[in-house]
From TrEMBL:
InterPro entries: PDZ, PDZ_scaffold, PDZ_sf. The lineage of its organism: Eukaryota, Metazoa, Ecdysozoa, Arthropoda, Hexapoda. Residues 128-144 have a biased composition (Low complexity). It comes from Cuerna arida. This is PDZ domain-containing protein. Pfam families: PDZ. Residues 26-107, 175-261, 291-373 form the PDZ domain.
Amino acid sequence: GIHLNGGLERIAPYNGQNDAQYETVSVTIERESHQALGIRLSGSWMESGIYITEVVPDSPAAHTALLCPYDRILYVNDEDVTNCQLQQVSSLLQSNEKVTLVVSRKRSTLPVSHSRTKSAPTSHDSEFSPSLSSSAPLSQKSVSCDSLTPPMPPHHAATINLNRDFTSQELQHKFITIVKEPNESLGMRIGGGLGSNEGDIPIYIANIHPQGCVGKTQQIWKGDILIGVNGNSLVGLTHGQAVATLKATVETAKVEMTVVEGPETSLGAFNFIPSWLYWQKLPRCLQFPKTVVLFRTPGASLGFSIVGGEDPTRGAQHIHILFVVQDSPAAKDGKLKCGDRLLSVDGQSLEKVEHSKAVSMLKQTGTKVVLEIVSWLGTEI
């Protein structure tokens, strides 16, 4: 899983190559033209700086034995990328079969894990359907996407709070026009959706065929959030509803897509599967909270501990569930998981609240406690 404090602490602002807290490493990766480099990247929504979040086992990057998760990429083939955006760095990395990186990492004795989180199992190659087969039933056709996560029953999504302001400035999106032949596939896959096996999450781009309609634009990347198609919002839809919306564009010659740049991407042919940190970095309006109601006898514990909170040295940190005690009210309810983000207690927001204050708020609750949380698959500390 992800060690919340240790992991996030290592992604600290880089204050120059000569900072005594940091070391720089030069790494040359050589690969065949058909091979992926084998690294997953992450960028911040608010700041510049591109980080490696994962090194794929048995990949060219892994074979160097020099790259680690949380390394910050400073140079790609002698080009300074310290202030570049995620898409620019992705393009540079894919442009050559031989890539030389200079990365920075914080000098630390913290152990680095190369294993994937539960939300990112081993990647696998993708296949794309170039066009619709007129003989296949509609449910089996791969038009512009393939169902990666079968949706759960619709009633599950009904508990989600959808009172969102999607015009807020924090949701910086772009409009991309895809020109294609009628009945031509868009050449991409989507994942996510409310009630999906991954949790209640927005629709994201899971894979793109490089020679497909979307791939040729070089404007949409794996990991981007797809929030609209031809004026129809995909926000708050189930996976199946989003697939149906995309299938409705099959016969059109032009598709307008509204996209929010994702905080992570991946290179190569395998499907992009978001990490736990990916969901943490999404704008608040793309996170779908749910309500958990716990009951306890007077004086009894709720049965969970928390980590995080406003801190004078670390700054603002989200409050997460650290541990759920067996046979407690929280465990018996079954909805709280280790790593879930805690938003409010009995209607009182925990935004910018110190840890001790949050603990006090929880202790002062009565026999019925109403919690608002955000939960993702693999939210494990």
